[in-house]
Write a structure and sequence with these properties.
Helices cover 12% and strands 49% of the residues. The protein is built from one helix and five strands; from the N terminus they run αβββββ. The mean pLDDT is 84.
Amino acid sequence: MASTKVQRIMTQPINLIFRFLQSKARIQIWLFEQKDLRIEGRITGFDEYMNLVLDEAEEVSIKKNTRKQLDILILKSLKRGIRGYNLTNN
């Protein structure tokens, strides 16, 4: 039986973020310091520091099994995780 070798290609994180932006894919972000909380949304913008702007954002609580609508959210990338800013009047 002939074996086939699968070639794996490393993708830079910034390129992956750009691909998600182009495809308008809904993404889920796991927060570093809040293990039971996730943020979901579509990337509408980002910069070279991997700060993100998410549209249709939702805060997903794993413990409580709840979702909270956030609309537009800015996620600031930090060395120890991500800090979020809600741009709506909630």
